[in-house]
Amino acid sequence: MSIDFTGTYGIFTKLGLLGGFLSKINQFQKDLITVKSPEFITKFTGNAKTKVILGYIPEIDLQIESVSNITPNLLVGVAADIVIDSVRSDDPIIPEDLSLCLAELVNQMEENNIRVRQVTNTITTSQSTPAKSVVLIAPVNERGLENQFILAETLRLEVSSDSYTGGAAAGNEAFTISTANTASSIYNYDYPAGSGASDTFNRVNVTASLEQGNLVTNGTFLIASTTTPTAPESWEAISPHGVAGVNWATSVDGLKLTGNATSSVRLRQDVSTSVTGRTVYGFHFRVKAPVALTTGNLTIDLIDESGTILTSDTNTMLAYSVSLNEVGTSFTEHTGYFVTGTKTPSVVYLRIMSTAESTKILYVDRLALTQMQEMYSGGPYVAVFGVSTNPLSQGERISVNITKALKDGTGTIPYTNNTFQMLFNRLFATGVGGFTLPFSSTPNVADTLIN
Description:
Layout: H1 11-36, H2 38-41, H3 49-90, H4 98-111, E1 116-117, E2 119-127, E3 134-138, E4 153-161, E5 174-179, E6 198-202, E7 204-205, E8 236-237, E9 248-251, E10 254-258, E11 265-270, E12 280-288, E13 297-303, E14 319-323, E15 332-339, E16 349-354, E17 361-371, E18 373-374, E19 381-386, E20 397-408, E21 411-414, H5 420-428, H6 430-433, E22 439-440
Parallel strand pairs: 1-22, 7-19
Antiparallel strand pairs: 2-20, 3-19, 4-5, 4-20, 5-6, 8-11, 9-10, 10-17, 11-16, 12-15, 12-17, 13-14, 13-16, 18-19, 20-21
Helix pairs in contact: 1-3, 3-4
């Protein structure tokens, strides 16, 4: 037995009818808005009917608002009953609780390989001044899946506190997040006009040591160990993977790694007090080699005490590798993100591992790990990395432009509001609540059921 998904009386069939009704309500609202448009009103200019049509506009506004109120007062309650009834018809032991029934729906969709249409996000960034920062946007949710509820909009990141007059440390300046638009209601015709994002966060100073947003101690590797002067302070050797002063050492260019003849070269740092489960962390480092390398990799990962790489709730390993044949003689910067899983252990290490050939050298510098900032509830995550020697001034801006499309096999098709992922978000606030319907680029739940 399982939930009836798309049959004549299936859960998606019924909810699709409600979605179609909501779509028709929104279209009616758009038609009313047309009456308020300048193009419409100017046709009455110069005759006695002008005052007549203008007098109707306040009434039109009231009608638009009253139509929107139909949805929460009627459709949401009906939709909740449909979910509860559909789930409990299959398993009456499950309580009459919407959250529990939504969770069971997702579980059964996973078990039966039931998928809705996947949304994909394209993100570009630009800076108002020559690039002083490295901007990282993570379009994921807390499970590590691509976030299906991000809104298509342009967000502004503007420096609100600098080191010149604002009292911030250079490299650790404060940003405000803002956007131009927000929908008047999740049920209204203008949804999703914009997130209405309004928050603050600080740039991460990658030259700082365990401060100013950086969770790594001695990520520049300039501080030498007092007990082993050839090794960097706060980093542990992982035996038998190299020898201090031979396979790793501090230098003016950062951590000097020299290939080991018998194994990879590995160092680790305990970050247990900073890393917790179901959290998005951004990382940054830069790497170079004095001569071109042809084989091997440099890997940054999160591991447990035994050296096992941690995974997200979707079983994605929290590891990032750079092929050494792509490393140049000048520093190149790398960023990425890890999404920790629910079962993250109490002891976590950040590990550096090189598989360069014996005697081959590379340098790693400005390693940073930071908890990323959610731009708005249910939205993408952001981190901005910089250095104290390249400070920002108040008013400098970064633009984040987000566009959306629907996955269709190996390609995409234009985005539309009439998808089941969006419908569930509008009816049940699933984006904020942490529920994501299982999705695929080749769905077997057709959005045409929304009619």
